[in-house]
């Protein structure tokens, strides 16, 4: 819920393969669940992840770009209210941003400080 009282939500579904070479049942379930959560959060926060992990060349060293202060402040302004209201956890917001960017310690602390005081109790 933002300052105006508007609420956003997202739902994603993922189909599990019955079998996948090199993966046991729990790995298949975990992969499908992670994939669904990633795209649900991407839809909720309106982020298009063009650099999908499935497209990366794993033979080359790859690191995520550091999130600029401007991008961070824009994301915080738009979605920080859902953390400060207690609707979303700061760690979930950090995880979602970290799938796209490398966050600085200061950026992570700024998100954690948004959480209501009783959220950690």
Describe, in plain words, how this protein is organized in 3D:
With 121 residues, this protein is an all-alpha fold. 44% of the residues lie in helices and 0% in strands. It has helices at 25-44, 69-84, 90-98, 105-112.
List keywords for this structure.
single chain; mainly alpha
Number of beta-strand segments: 0
Morphology: globular
The overall pLDDT average reads 80
> In oligomeric terms, what are we looking at?
single chain
What is the distance, rounded to the nearest whole angstrom, between the alpha carbons of the first and last residues?
21 Å
Radius of gyration of CA atoms, rounded to a whole number: 16 Å
Beta-strand portion reads under 5%
What share of residues is helical? 40-55%
Ranges with pLDDT <50 over ≥5 residues? none
Quickly give the structural class. Answer: mainly alpha
**What is the H/E order?**
HHHH
Number of H/I helices: 4
Largest sheet: none
What would a concise description of this structure say?
The chain has 121 residues and is an all-alpha fold.
Helix/strand layout:
Elements lengths: L24 H20 L24 H16 L5 H9 L6 H8 L9
